[in-house]
Amino acid sequence: MNIKHIIPADRLSKSTLIGSYSVASKYIETFIAAKHGNSQAQYNLGFMYANGSGFLKNNHKAVSWYRKSAEQGCAIAQSTLAYMYGSGKGTYQSDQEAAIWCHKAAEQNIALAQLMLSVMYVNGRGVAQNDNEAVLWCRKAAEQNYARAQYNLGFMYTKGKGVTQSYKIAVSWFKKASEQGYAKAQSNLGYMYSKGIGILKNDELAAYWFRKAGEQGNAKAQYCLSVMYYKGHGVPRCDKHAYAWVSLALINGYENAHKSQDFLVNKMTSDTLSQAKDLAEKLLDYITI
Mean pLDDT throughout 14-21? Predict the structure, then answer.
């Protein structure tokens, strides 16, 4: 079954400072508050050092302030400290320390920490490998409407990892993530509609979700949409659109795209090929690569 794998949570998405601190004008105020033990200020000061906000970037100082905040129970600081240990930024790399801090943040219902902990259980990093625990924490994050966790949980259901395999339930989680714009889930949902796996086969909806993912630069979805245009499944048959989408998939590194592009080139007249290339350029300008 050609369903994409679990997405790791080894990178923190960009976050913002806690509260209403202005980085340029409030550094001194933040520093003083942090020195006096204010946990939010300690987190904010760590954030400033980690991101080079208003002064030189210094990951070691960032970790120091994140730890002070985390030790006071600040959940976002605990989650961030887990990331720093996991990536070895500003401190020694330690999956065990990452897991400890990740668990503390996860227990405070931080969705990102719950997802990170789930992935650690999947891979046995810092904790003993345990699919049941992986599902437990992934579900907690997914139920908070975290799209990446919803995608991962859907994948777990396709494989029966820590749960009874159910394509129907997998589809339901892929839908939730897809509706939030998560491209990998959209690509998988398109695939399941195209094959009738866990849901009634529907080429129109398959093409719809492949397009949604393809417009975000998902190479697999771009390739699949190209195939649908070539076969006329769910969309009007059109070699020009098939060429345009497979060209984007090729740009994005999809390994089978080159042969398909060559096949289409050999089928088209020079005029049609020229139009197809123009269409590909327009799509390239529009789509996130």
Answer: 53
